[in-house]
Amino acid sequence: MVGCLGGTSLSAAPGMLIAAYADFVDLDSQLWHLNDREPALPYKDGVLSPGTMADWGGHSS
């Protein structure tokens, strides 16, 4: 299992890296925050997405 109880998008991002190897994934705690970090991980129709490298301090392609 991988999860981030009480964390923001910043704590969910590393969990996304290992989520494919986990039997259970619970990476939605950032949705409970009134003010998540910016930029927040995109969440639509029950699917959490990693966003872009530029969102996380990387270089955009």
Description:
This protein has one helix spanning 9-18; strands at 2-3, 25-26, 43-44, 47-48. The protein is globular. The protein has one domain. Helix content is 16%, strand content 13%. The strands form two sheets. It has a two-stranded parallel ribbon with strand order 1-2. The mean pLDDT is 82. The protein is α+β, with helices and mostly antiparallel strands and 61 residues long.
Topology:
Blueprint: E1 2-3, H1 9-18, E2 25-26, E3 43-44, E4 47-48
Parallel strand pairs: 1-2
Antiparallel strand pairs: 3-4
Defining traits:
two-stranded parallel ribbon, 1 helix, two-stranded antiparallel sheet, 61 residues, 16% helix, alpha+beta, 4 strands, globular
SSE order, one letter for each helix or strand: EHEEE
Q: Which strand order do you get reading across the main beta sheet?
A: 1-2
Helix fraction bin: 10-25%
Low-confidence stretches: none
Strand content: 5-15%
Shape descriptor reads globular
Structural class: alpha+beta
Cα distance, first to last residue?
32 Å
- How many separate domains? 1
Number of strands: 4
Q: What is the rounded Rg?
A: 11 Å
Please tell me the overall pLDDT.
82
Number of DSSP helices? 1
